[in-house]
Structure formats: C-alpha cells, structure tokens
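#structure-requests
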Amino acid sequence: MSGSPAGSAEARRPTAGTPVPTASGSTAGFLAHRPALRPDVLLSPALLHGPATVHLIKDPEGGAAFEVGVKEYFLISRLDGVRSLGEIGEEYADAFGKRLAEPHWKRLLGLLGTRGLLAGAPARPAPAATGPAAPAAAAVTASGPFNGTLLRGTMRLVADANATTGRLHRLLRPVLRAPFLLPLTGLLAAMEVLLASALPELAGDTWWLFHRPVALIAVFTLLWLSTALHELAHGVAARHYGGTVSEIGLRWRLPMAVMYCTVDNYRYLRTRWHQFVVAGAGAFANLLFLLPFLAWWAALPAGDPTRRVLSGLLLLGSVQALVNLLPLPPLDGYTMLGHALRVSRLGPESGRYLRLRLGDRAAAAAYPRRARTLYLGYAVGSALLVVLILAALATGLYFNLVH
C-alpha cells in the first residue's frame, strides 16, 4: 500500500496554517471541540506489520495511504463530530490508562489537518511537477492510455474502470449470492475430484497436445481468455463488497501480454471474508470457465481427438487456477492468506524476522508472540512448499523422460 508511514500522534507537530482548534480560554474549552474526520476517509482493520499492530488510513481523493498505531487509530476512529475531544479523551484514558494533554491533541489534529482529512479542511492542492522530473511526467500524461515501451508497458483498455465493473456487477448481482454460489462451489470441487481421478488420461493427452501446434495455440488462446475473466472477477467481487476499481488494461513484457484489473480499497473492507472472497474470485472464475468444457469432454469417447484437446485444456486450466491459490507471492493465495491472518507484507516481514532470529535474537524476542508464531511458521512453511513443488516438477520431468 502506497503512502508514507505515520509516526506516533504524540511525536507529530502540525505545520504552519494547520486547521486545528485553538484553546482561546482554557483547556476545558479546547476539549469541548467536536472535530470530525471526513466521511470518505478509509480506515482499515488492525494489521500486523513486523512487531507492531497498525491501521491504514487512506484519502480516496488523493489515493495516499499511511499507517498509524493502535492508540492513534483509537482516537482518529472516534472523530465523528458528535463526541467532544474531552469525551474521546475519557475513553482513551479508560482503555490505555493515560490522559492526553492538549499539546498531544493538537499534534494529532495537526497531522490530520495537514493531510486534509478533517471535515471542513481545505482541499490539498495537487503537487506540481517541477525540476528534472517534469518533462518525464508530462510525457507520461501526454501518452494517454499507454505507458512504457513496445517491449514492456501497460495500456488502459477502458476510460472508467470503476463504471465498467459496476455495470458488470449489476448484471451479475442476482447470482452473486450464497444460495447460488455455494452449490456452484461444490460443483467446481466435484469437477476437480473427477479430473484428479482421470489424471493419467489427462496427462497423456496433454503430452499429445504439445505435439500439435495448432491445437496447442487454440488451448492457450482459451487460457488467455480465462486470465482476462480472472481479472474482471476480482473487480466485480470488489464492487460487490464496496471496493473500487481504478484501472483495467493490458500489461505486456514481450512475448507475454496479460490483462490486469487494479482493485482499490478492498483492504479497507470491514470483514476478512469479504477481503478473502475478492482475492479468491479470480481462481473461482478460472475454474468456472472450465465447467462447460468438462461437459463437452465427458460426452466424447476416449481417444477422440477433440476430447484429447479438451483434456489438455482442462488439465492446464486447473493447474492455472489451483497454482494461483498457493500462498506464495505474488499469487492470489498469498494475498488471501494475508487477509485471513490480518498481516501486512507477510513474506518480507517473515524474512526479516527470520534474519533477526538468526542474527539478533534479542530483537527477534521483542516481537509479540503472535508475530513470532506467524512469521516463523510462514518462513518455514513457504520454504517447505517450494521444496515440494520443485521435487514434484523434477519427478514429473524424470517420468516423462523415462517413458
């Protein structure tokens, strides 16, 4: 998540001109103020980030996000324009055993005011491009939907990605409900069990397929279409639960080119389940794409050339979907695990903790117990998973060479 980290509210000082209340008469008068956070400002649930528990705060207008600690979040989340600073201070004292003095309040409100996050604060002007970076910035703007070079870059495919996914969501909303999705999920699971039972046939037919260039190109074209549906599924799921989509486009690094859909704000959804579903919607769409081809495959006799092509599509498509659910970055399964555990940057922080554990045991011991358990568990578990994958690939390669 982009944005600069925020330090303690008690360590920040407002800049000149910050719109904060002033105590004209007494501390009591100051504490009677009832400031409010802008209603569109997004606050995330608690996230583990290294040894600390943090919350993300995002300004949807500018897109900037920053982290605050638990105490700062406690105060910021209660700035509703109804409770006074004194009332919030009483709640803070009950929760943390410490009262906030007037200077502490001013520093916190100064931080929020400087960032334009308080209701009634003037809008922050967009930063002007100056210096050596200005021509480059102008060039990017002038390029319109294109960004990058012929060898590597991106291209926006729709002018308003949020409106496009909104229209798709309205169209699909009647089926985006548990009474429909739960049986469909069971059907997809049954499909994978059936395909697993027919794995020898599927593997043999896929090997045959790789020696048929025309048929192989057709299968990979369908798989590419599946990846496009994968990306759109993320966007539709995000819209279903209140997230937004900022961009839909094409990303290429020749000779590869794939669709992408940039989903915003779903980290700020209130429940883990909603975040989990948004992250997993792409793999679900991949498997759903295969369902009609399974029916076609089952209707054909063994050995039929079309059935053999479909075998390759079903096997490769299933691998595409299921591999994407592995909890390794940058796969969706890694994102899903992070949401389920409410952990930010699980992979990098696990590596950081493991290095501390090997080189600075005192620093590693300062981590809370939950952080130590999660980071060590992920570091060891992901390493074992990679070893198992490599072993499986080596075994498969050896089997094909021998036979």
